[in-house]
């Protein structure tokens, strides 16, 4: 069994808000750059997660009248990324 990724208790090293018309993956890349990750040196995002599914999740949340929130924590590029409907945070 693999350990699940959890939201760290420490403050993030980077945080970006997700614009109303922005895809989650675009915000994730902005957060990675703000965390000083060299995106030319890391493997492709599509090799690690289903980026289309991430974008659809955020799009579905924006269209729905659901009261619930979502939080997705994923380990990418030796960092933990936390995606919420309004922001992406990066943790070491």
UniProtKB/TrEMBL annotation:
Pfam families reported for this sequence: HalOD1
* All residue ranges annotated as the Halobacterial output domain in the record: 32-86
The entry's protein name is Halobacterial output domain-containing protein
């Amino acid at each position: 069994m693999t350990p699940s990724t959890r939201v760290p208790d420490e403050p993030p090293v980077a945080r970006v808000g997700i614009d109303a018309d922005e895809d989650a993956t675009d915000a994730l890349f902005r957060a990675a750059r703000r965390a000083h990750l060299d995106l030319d040196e890391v493997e492709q995002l599509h090799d690690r997660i289903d980026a289309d599914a991430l974008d659809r999740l955020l799009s579905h949340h924006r269209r729905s009248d659901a009261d619930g929130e979502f939080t997705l924590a994923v380990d990418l590029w030796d960092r933990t990324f936390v995606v919420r409907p309004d922001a992406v945070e990066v943790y070491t």
